[in-house]
Amino acid sequence: MATTASITYSMMCLCACVGSGQQSVTGVESADDANSYWQIRGKPTRPCQRGSAIKCGQPIRITHMKTSRNLHTHRFSSPLSNNQEVSAFGENGEGDDLDVWTVQCDGIYWDRDEPVRFKHVGTDVFLGITGEQYGHPIRGQREVHGMSTPNQHNLWRTMEGVFIQPSQDPLRHDEL
């Protein structure tokens, strides 16, 4: 069973969290929030071609659409669960090597209708969410964190978004 919150439902709060002091990433169940959209991008040295399918095992960056910061983790403890802190880092989609995750899924490609895990390349944790909720000023938002083992709390589903089809070759004129 996939987690009840989705990466597309994850919300960036505008407060600094304890630990790293970077922008925290929280999970909400409301899908109608402009803060809930993320873009999947390739590594800086290996960008994704627009519209191409993402392979299981492929390294990616997950960039918040509104702030252009990357989903990031490092060896700081998360404030509520004491797992590994997950934050938003970088400017204009550029961060560092701790922004890279691999897509963990069954099959050859990430199917948007199937559950998926994101495993952090630098620290080997899985992007997860459990029941821990923040109080003031972000009451009710759930902590997103890195978990050391795969389980039902780190399965994600793509719920909505813009899915770009691969470019088609331009039409050719062979009559000449």
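Second entry:
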Amino acid sequence: MLKVLKYTVLTAFILVIVFIASIFIDVFTTDTPVEGFELSTLKKRVVSNEHSIEDTLEIAKDYFNNNEIKKSYITYLHILERDPNNVDAYIGIAWFMNG
């Protein structure tokens, strides 16, 4: 059971890395911002670390439930920057990968 969880988390991590690479390629090869993404709003709510990780998870879930998928994904990544072992963030990213 633990081995399966370990491989699941590892697989999710690899998928995240691949996805991040694709985002960077898209962002840095075009001069236009990503459609629908407002970094200033996201920074005000999340990047400033004003929220606890639990609150930030709720923000990510709200973004996902409101079909703001890119914001949700970036919020989950921010959670992983603060807590690299946060299973809920990996699960959120896995949901993102599965559509």
